[in-house]
């Protein structure tokens, strides 16, 4: 059916081939492989990272190999596979609790690339160790472990070693991706074998630097989106002299900033008291992952939930509507991880099923524990600092970088990503302009020298391919092919 059919039969580990998936009828459009790679040589209590590899539906021998990482830290990359850009759309099973039905996804990124979905670090998703001390990790260790995984993976799949290789991810993977990219680049310089044909990386709504991602992004975003008034914004801007990060400890700035943050965050997290109650009006109940989506986590909503005989509020059940034929996920109540996890009933039902685990060569629950979209098993330390030096170093070496943002995400607002990409001081080579998908303006971009592009996706939330799958496939395809977006 496709070019690599004979080669992959001979080169890929035969036991890793996925021959069927419960819930899906019919042949796969391309080959699928999955399984574990032990990265530390300890076969009894070592680190075992789980991957699911989907071969491109187009031209596997020439199309790029892309590693996909979800964030958290602690969230499984089956988030991307099930809910965002994997080969299938998942329809909830009927009756409730039964296996979902799988349908081919018209907007899957595997139409134009080979993709490795990796559960990382160990302890996340289906990755595991029998030694729980291995679940203590951080930025540097995770990057090193994932680099080791890649070297071992390419040893098992040598037929893909010459393909262009890219690293991609979203949210907290804004830390995973540049730190891993740096490890890969260093490995190439140091002559590590096999030599990975690394070309660049992409990050979406990516955690990068607290100075840019935090209040300095949030305050102008909230004002620009008409979530706080001119008066509140001007008071904060004046008191903080436009810097809501460095001046936040000064009394006047702090009091004005607290007013903004109380409106934005405290209401969202449900922390109400007589002291802050006066401010709980402007953004009460905003869904931080997409401010256009409804968000109900109030006592009244809990009553609605029980009346609806559902595990979710009625309004929450209406989230996630896109041009996809199946609304596969209802986003979080508006609370930031780890306060509430997203609705992952479809994925958890599927990935905790014994037959599914056998089909994808995953260990049973007795070994890995139950699959959770985002786990609290790991103890993670952010020890790499700001990602800006990593981005500068990588782009100065000539690696391509795409920084994209759903422009209605308030978790990691586009205002921060736009600001830190501009802060690199690179020359603008493609001045701010709209980009087009399906004959419509899909967002805006600015291109810099050193192969850096910043791009917004109009109307998208935190997980861009979930909200705007058609537009996401468009910019992804063009960027990988080196075509103008």
Descriptive overview:
- Helix content is 33%, strand content 18%.
- By secondary structure, it is an alpha/beta fold.
- It has a domain of 304 residues: Alpha/Beta hydrolase fold, catalytic domain (Rossmann fold).
- Helix 3 packs across helix 4 and helix 7 packs across helix 8.
- The chain is globular and about 65 Å long.
Question: Radius of gyration, rounded?
Answer: 22 Å
CATH architecture of the domain at 5-210 and 383-480: 3-Layer(aba) Sandwich
Spans where pLDDT lies below 50 across 5 or more residues: 1-9, 266-283, 296-321, 331-343
CATH topology of the domain at 5-210 and 383-480: Rossmann fold
Strand content: 15-25%
